Amino acid sequence: MTQTAPESSAVGAAGSDEHPKRFASLDPRTGEVVAHHPVHSAQEVTEAVATARRAATWWAELGFDGRKQRLDAWRRLIVKRLDEIANLVSAETGKPNADAKLELALVIDHLHWAARNAERVLRRRRVASGLLMLNQAATVEYRPLGVVGVIGPWNYPIFTPMGSIAYALAAGNTVVFKPSELTPGVGVWLADTLAEVVPEHPVLSVVTGFGETGAALCRSGVDKLAFTGSTATGKRVMASCAESLTPVLLECGGKDVLIVDYDADVAAAADAALWGAMSNAGQTCIGVERVYVVEDVAEEFVEQITKRAAKLRPGGQPSADFGPITMPSQVEVIRSHVQDALDKGGRAVVGGTESVRPPFVEPVVLVDVPEDSLAITEETFGPTVTVNRVRDVDEAVRLANAGKYGLGGTVFSKSRGEQVARRLRTGMVAVNSVIAFAAVPALPFGGVGDSGFGRIHGEDGLREFTRVQSVTRKRFKPVLNPMSFSRGGGVVGRLMAIVKARYGR
Ligand code: NDP
Predict the structure, then answer these.
(1) pLDDT digits over 223-274, tens only?
(2) Which of 4, 9, 342, 445 has the fewest CB atoms nearer than 10 Å to its CB?
(3) Which stretches make up the Aldehyde dehydrogenase domain (predicted)?
(4) How many helices and strands, by DSSP H and E, does the chain display?
């Protein structure tokens, strides 16, 4: 279903018609149409999956080397046309061009890693057959699943889905991708460029449309569905996939914490907290939404973050620190969280509800925010951050772990950062820097609780898109063969004697 966006000949914007055949992606900075895309029906999604299934046999049979060559060629093509895709990411999300390029740098590194490491991680390997099965050769292998469905969000429209797409392709699957309705062009660009270097079969297809197109992908008979998006939609995706027992990988929202310990480099912590909270206008699943700072250094931290946050300016121009809120409905969520924090007794030391000026939101730093406020308990997904004082790091860990999400986290501490990190109930932690784990291709990425389950990136991310197959091969006749009706009387007794001698001590 890969298609090039037609000229803006046809219809109105997304949602302008009850049953539109096409929809427009818009530049959130200006409201201008970027391109029109088809709304694919359930029937068209099923056809895309059937085509991908035919391509899957060819792609799997290419083997690791054949796939690596092609994925490497795709990587080089992406690098060559980096400006073009950065401009498109920027147009569909509104983020500054430099941030789009930063996102692409990570994509390229991950694509390289996945292609390079797939064979080492997934190839057939011998394992010990154990005392009781000494006569058997045992091997384990990670085989492709077939067709993987990928549903992606708009906030990092190329980095987040490529965490699944690149790893699923490297593992030998073909992919049908449904991008967010806000960023369909990025998905189409990915499929078109891969088709340039892999013209033989459509190993990556894109279906575009709204939630119904995504739901159709869940019901299409794909062999696994990798979803990145909000927790609420993740639950719907899981329910749809349950109908056909389609396995799911869910990368959902977060409410990540940054902890500042008594001995932290406070200036570095403030700098990192600000980047973690405000970059990409706070529309980052692993963005810093809550800070817990130990009281010895709280005053200094608040002073530092206030000074820095007050200088940040959102806007549509390339020099802006961050862009607009991409999804218009999120603006009200952000405003309501700030209002609720203030109503419950929190204080704004930078900005306030007046900072919400759609499509932009200026930085908001809230302090002393009650723990039952929406700004503490729910994902805000805007350029806001709460800063609460705690007695010690134990209290910080307790409050961090009290939430329903468990995606990433950050610890600033000179003497015990890793020790504190291990106490956080999250999938990832950065010590003395922020978000670094997402940029290390070898590290698995994913969460617990309402942040979802399963892992993209790294060895686990490759294995996620495979079915493990275990094989034994009889090498010679066993001395004892208890698994036969002709085993004879004493065989099990002799086996028990061996078990007792070996394992009973
Ligand atoms: P949504 O949950 O709104 O949408 C995600 C995707 O699901 C979109 O492609 C959407 O299509 C599609 N969709 C909507 N309804 C259905 C349905 N019933 N069945 C199947 N698919 C459906 O998330 P956002 O796009 O708003 O992304 C922001 C969220 O993503 C945040 O919560 C953020 O934390 C999370 N996220 C998580 C990451 C992680 O790795 N853990 C990384 C990045 C973001 P459409 O857009 O057309 O409605």
Answers:
(1) 999 999 999 999 999 999 999 999 999 999 999 999 999 999 999 999 999 9
(2) 9
(3) 19-471
(4) 16, 22
- Whether 264 maps to a domain, the answer reads yes
Check: CB of residue 383 under 8 Å from CB of residue 314: yes
State whether the beta carbon of 152 lies less than 6 angstroms from ligand 1. Answer: yes
Distance 180 CA to ligand 1 centre (A): 7
- CA of 295 from ligand 1 middle (Å) equals 37
Of 417, 441, 465, which residue is a domain's last? 441
Does residue 181 line the site of ligand 1, with CB under 6 A? yes
Judgement on whether residues 217 and 271 belong to the same structural domain of the protein: no
Active site residue 252: no
Q: Does 490 map to a domain?
A: no
- Tell me: the pLDDT tens digits for 63-104? 999 999 999 999 999 999 999 999 999 999 999 999 999 999
Out of 441, 474, 499, a domain closes at 441
| Distance separating alpha carbons of residues 52 and 470, to the nearest angstrom | 26
Looking at ligand 1, which atom is closest to the CA of residue 231?
A: 32
The atom number, within ligand 1, closest to the CA of 236 reads 18
Q: Determine whether 251 is an active site residue.
A: yes
